Amino acid sequence: ARIRLTMRPYDGLFEQTADAMCELRRDGFVLRANPACRALLNPRACTFADSFDARHAAAIRGALSSLDEQMTTTSVDARVLDDDQVIRWHVTRVDDDLYVAAGRPLSAADAPTRDPMSAVGELAADIAHDFNNLLTGIIGAAELALHDAAEGRPVQEDLSQIRDAGERAVELSKRLLRKAREANVDLEERAPRQLDLVDAAREPAPKTIPRPPAASSPVLVVDDEDTVRKAIACMLEAAGHRVVSSGCPREALDLLEGMSGLSLLAADVTMPGMSGQQLAAQVRERFPEVPVLFMTGYVSGPPESVASGCDGAHVLLKPFSMKSLSDAVEAVVHGAAGAAEADTAAEPRQARSSSLPRSRDLGT
Fold first, then answer.
1. At 299, is the pLDDT very low, low, confident or very high (cuts 50, 70, 90)?
2. Where would a tag sit more exposed on the chain, N or C end, judged by fewer CB atoms within 10 A?
3. pTM check: above 0.70
4. CB 307 within 8 A of CB 343
5. Confidence of residue 60 (pLDDT cuts 50, 70, 90)
């Protein structure tokens, strides 16, 4: 039976202690937090780990998943997001879906030394992730505008998405400059090419987009970035796919209740409240054979590591063009269809990528 943590002596300690304390589910969702903990956590974060920088957030998620009936307690150090403060957390498993985390800031002597280059690297990774999301929306909306213009349709909505993404990119640049000034870093005026965006932009826009046979089941697109989600959904819809989209993984799971089938799950990897991998696992509990495409703006290791544990899943790095998305979707759907379908395919498929374009946002 679940151990009750609502007894009066515990509640008094929980609320009054100077140490940060919170109760968590296994997926990191914060059930409640005391005042000291609330002062540390990002109020916009949906999970405990989301309040810490990317590297330490991964360590926290790993710590929660490592606990079981044999190993009930672990410790992990985590640096607060946009802060140099390091908290040492002691996490205890109470039962299958109840965990208690208690933490206090480390002293300067105990805190790990923050190498300046390491700090720059962490910042660069965060900025690259955010910029790749923005660029995905910009590239997608631009290609859709070219496609709509070629067919004589209005392009105002597509252009508005480009403008909105551009304004967010300006704010992101200001954030980077503020960080650089705080660290007294001289930024050289360079144009890093993490991805070959220039060549991608030069790729001629397709005059027509091949439309696959209409699927009876929809594609589910889940991404917490509005611009990215809408661009992806629009590209898929333009290719003839029926699309349902959501900006929240938990809301996406609720959408499944009214569905009899699903032709594809296209999910961002890093989202508040639930990762793309966790979402895919729960979606496959309902639709075990559904193909999965993970999309991410940053990965520290080999891209295929993102899909580990999710059989047959493919990974698409942001930013991507309409053609790259189309190739990626075709590859993952084709792979899920099996060898028999491959033998009867009219045209050879690329192994690394595969298929789809255009849509309007159906979920939030």
1. confident
2. N
3. no
4. no
5. confident
Which stretch of 14-28, 104-118, 183-197 has the lowest confidence by average pLDDT?
183-197
The closest of 258, 263, 290 to 363, measured between CA atoms, is 258
| Residue-averaged pLDDT of the chain | 75
Tally of residues, the chain: 364
Give the whole-angstrom CA distance, residue 220 versus residue 257. 13
Count of Cβ atoms closer than 10 Å to residue 346 Cβ:
4
According to DSSP, residue 213 is labeled: P
CA 198 from centroid of its chain's CA atoms: 25
Radius of gyration of the chain (CA): 22
136 touches 161 (CB < 8 A): no
H helices present in 151-275, as ranges: 156-182, 197-202, 226-238, 249-255
Coil vs helix vs strand at 49: helix
Compute the distance between CA of residue 51 and CA of residue 24 in angstroms, rounded to an integer: 14
pLDDT confidence of residue 183: 55
31 Cβ contact list (under 8 Å, min separation 6): 22, 23, 24, 25, 98
What is the C-alpha separation between 189 and 181, in angstroms, rounded? Answer: 15
Give dist(CA 219, CA 265) in Å, integer.
Answer: 6
Query: Which pLDDT score is estimated for 33?
Result: 92
* Whole-Å CA distances, 68 to 23, 101, 166, 278: 16, 15, 46, 18
Cis status, amide bond into 302, omega within 30 of 0 = no
- Give the span between the Cα atoms of 214 and 243, in whole angstroms: 11
